[in-house]
Amino acid sequence: MTEAARINVVELTVSEVSQxxxxxxxxxxxxxxxxxxxSGYRGPHSxxxxxFAIKDEGARLDAVIWKMAFNRMRFKPEEGLEVVVTGxxxxxxxxxxxxxxIETLEPAGAGALMMLLEERKKKLAAEGLFDEARKQLLxxxxxxxxxxxxxxxxxxxxxxxxxSDRFPRQALVWPVRVQGDGAAEEVAAxxxxxxxxxxxxxxxxxxxxxxARGGGSLEDLWCFNEEIVVRAAANSMIPLISAVGHETxxxxxxxxxxxxxxxxxxxxxxxxxxxxxxxxxxxxxARRVQACWLRGQEARRTELRAAARALPSxxxxxxxxxxxxxxxxxxxxxxxxxxxxxxxxxxxRVAARLSPQLLRTRLxxxxxxxxxxxxxGALSRKVYLERRRDRVDxxxxxxxxxSYRKVLDRGFALVRDGKGFPLHAASAVTPGMALDIxxxxxxxxxxxxxxxxxKGKPRGGGASGQGxxxx
Length: 471
Prior knowledge:
By secondary structure, the protein is α/β, with parallel strands linked by helices. The chain has five domains: 10-108, CATH 2.40.50.140; 118-130 and 139-273, Response regulator (Rossmann fold, 3-Layer(aba) Sandwich); 276-309; 354-383; 396-454, no CATH class. The protein is built from 13 helices and 13 strands. The chain has helices at 3-8, 14-28, 67-72, 110-126, 154-166, 183-196, 227-234, 252-256, 264-271, 275-310, 314-352, 356-401, 404-409; strands at residues 32-39, 50-55, 60-65, 82-92, 97-107, 144-149, 170-175, 208-213, 240-244, 259-260, 414-416, 434-439, 442-447. Strands 1-2-3-5-4 form a five-stranded mixed β-barrel. Helix 8 links the parallel strand 9 (240-244) and strand 10.
């Protein structure tokens, strides 16, 4: 291009160039379908949008999924997953690059889905969600059966019909979508909702759950491979039977459930027993019990008969006692007469000692003995009293002789303190002390007015220092 031509080129701003490029790209690539491997995916942004890249062996394309489109997607992006995406090519002027705004996302063929399924299975298995120790036993005869499935398909009719044929039970159906956007969330919410029902609430809490769906392709059954559904099944406190697809179809909920049924009809058969078979079994058991009881009674009756034959007869048992009784009866009259004769002789000997004359003589002797004892007792009491009286008189004379009043009669006096206690020494008297002096003919009160004069030892010694003889 010549210099004049370059000078005549229209001058554009950066924004004008960016907008022009944006229109050009969007006009030529309105909608495209791109296949590649997801790279740099770290989950949704805090805003809800997703930012990552799609790459192959020779190129890399930035990608974005807006929040609304992400929520509608059945398959979510995963790092390293090969996918086929549909969207619009546009530019991002802030970084001078182009990107694809994805509206739909699907795994690139069944192989990619199987790879994703296997990786998710390994992840959940590592968390212990598929452990056999978590499995619960199914109740033998549930009262209420909860069913999570589509209310319009043939599956619910098959389950209800099979329950009615085998053992009519109350069935609660939680209608959900089993395919498409939002199906996984609805199935998980149904399982959690059944578990949240109170046991004694207005709506009865099921004793067993059946999660069922008819057959379909891997994509059609994909909602039962979602983590939210698998975790809800593993955390269910109500025993759960999974019946998704046909016998050859395998989904991750089958590993997390307590039992897997090949078909929805088989799930109903697992849930309840056959009523007619139970009645037949009960009748058979009743007949066996009755027959066993009859055999036992007959065996006891036979044993009783054998024991009765081994026992001696009544006549044999009573023969010897009867003979002893007859012999005793023969001896009884003679024994009674001999006994009466012996007692009669004893009575005669005793009667000879009980004549009136002997009794009168014994009575006179007893009277004389009593009289003699009375006279002897009166004399003894008189002598005892005289001796006691003499001892008392002697003690009175001795007491009078030793009385302090005899001393007072001889001209002495008894000095007491104010409390009435006798004073035995002059040192016990203090000046001003009240005294009580008793004479032979009365008492006189007095008060001590000086220090008492006590006898002292004579003192010796003079200027020469000669010792005292009283020393």
